[in-house]
Amino acid sequence: MKKMILVCALICAGQLYGMESQPSYETLLPELKQEIINTALATTKNIDESISMVKQLSIVHNVRYDNLKDFTKLVHLLADKFDKSTADIASKFIASKFNTPIAHTYLNLGKNLLIFAGDRRPFRRIKMIELIDQGADVNFSTGIVRPLKTALKSYNFDVVKILLNFGAKITMDDLDEAKSITSSHVDKARETSQLIEETWKKQQRK
Known about the structure:
single chain; mainly alpha; Serine Threonine Protein Phosphatase 5, Tetratricopeptide repeat
């Protein structure tokens, strides 16, 4: 009952908001953005219901997810709640026919980032930074595959540093992978393993 009251309250607020202007999602107040996300998470039991709720509230507020940063945040919240990869969540948005072209952009950037993470050619690193500047998610995932893990497995140590500098989160799998690194570049392997462990400790303290 409380959930339904919350949804109704948001709808009424959205109608009043819509009378004044027709904002894009990016221009909504941070509090309203958070309320939309919280409602979608709290009042639904599965991914499809959550996406449907986000769609309904977006229509009510006369906005759409046209901002990559906000979409990335939403994708991770849903992925964490339902234990899915971020690629799965973005694909669900596309499959639901939710009018979010940004979902295609998110997927394309993420898939290209995975490709470049495993490529050790120097010019690929520049391309990778360009992708991140365009909004590619350094924590993009397709099942167990993520850019950081791909870079570690490929002994792509410079890319590992790039990803960490841009906020890549370290998992226990990454820690294990870093400890087991063997390479002809022994010093770089040791340095990267130490960097992974130190960064992981910092992330745990946050």
